[in-house]
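Entry 14. Structure prediction run on the chain below.
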Amino acid sequence: MDLVLTIVTATIIGTVLAAVLSLLPGLHVYNVMGGVVILMYYLADRGVEVSPEIFVPFLTSMIVSWSILNTIPSVLLGAPDESALFTVLPGQKYLMMGRGYEGVLVTGVGALAGLYFLILVAAPLASRILPILHSILRAHVHWILWVIITFMLMSEWPKSGHGGKAGWGKFFSAWKTLGAGLATFLLSGLFGFLILYRSPVSVEVAFQNIMPAFVGLFAVPWCLLNAISGTSIPAQCLTKSLEIDGDVILRSSAAGVLGGGFAAFFPIITGGVGGMLAGHATAQRDERVFIMSQGVSKVIYYTGAFMLFFVPALGLRRGGGAWIIQGLYTPRSQYDFLMVLGTIAISGGVAFLMMPFLTRLVIRAVTKINYRLVSVLSLIIILVMVIGMTGWRGFLVMFVGTGIGLLPVLFGSRRLNCLGILLLPMACNMSGFGQNVAEFLGLI
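Output returned:
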């Protein structure tokens, strides 16, 4: 009984902590988890042992809670200006139409559907099916990665150059965003080779060597954009009905499970890629399906990828959470898997129940507190974490990543292209010529 109480307490604490952290734009749960792991090593060196029944549920619940509640700042604190209203994702369009509260809750329903799938469908079948599927597909991962890269780059679409007379001006206007997207992917890919073969980050925190690069590519540009944006958020309507039915839930769940599950199971493929695949699978007029599928995809990717590490007879390390915790603990039995499943169920339920309250809280805050100040505060916290965990070398890595990450922001291309930092070097390595590329770049 005491053991159950310990697990539940650690789960609730991790859920609430991640709920608070998820409201800060640009702050990723993996950054905080890395700090927790460093603290665990610090305590272990001084003879203080923390039970797995404490830190495993704690870290698991942080991932679950963040994957559900991070939707709130993604929708409410990512306001585009009016010129970009029709080129952004439906979540931001809902915000600018005063329906941000509805957009957040629809995504939350998708997240809850994703959790139901993981617990009721994926978990019972995982240990039987996934080991077989893994053994079949692992020899084909390299060409699957190249197909994903090709689709990702080809699906970039011109966001300007429409209308007007034909000519070179219109051509260059249309290719401005496409060129920026291709340049972003190539530069981030070369940056990835540098991190992989000549990481400037100290070996003492090698498990966090890519963290400052990701912060620079994704978090810092977002905070800077929000901090300098002149956009004001319109009044939001607190709707009492989401107007969704079983058909919408089933269609969005199918797309989200496929996209998020693909990202969770295959190495290097991230949640952003899974969301892109889910988005294309729901490319239809009903934007509710698209928004809900993103909630499903995010939970399936973050929570599902972490769950795979604990599946008996599988033990796949997918996603940053599994890579962070692997140095602390190795699952040994069905008990670990059941403990993680229980944590996912409790944390997911608590986080979903917290969502309406936290959404209303953020809506009230942005009407009274300039959300630019929130972005500046988030940026300061991120800078302190990067320097505290990886030192000034990590800060320089973050600075370079920020330069690359600003390209999509300035030219309106897809930020997903920044994932070239992982996709390009790993695709080259899995295809057998990554070392040749590194030699050509003078890295080895």
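The chain has one domain: 2-440.
Filed with the rest of this week's runs.
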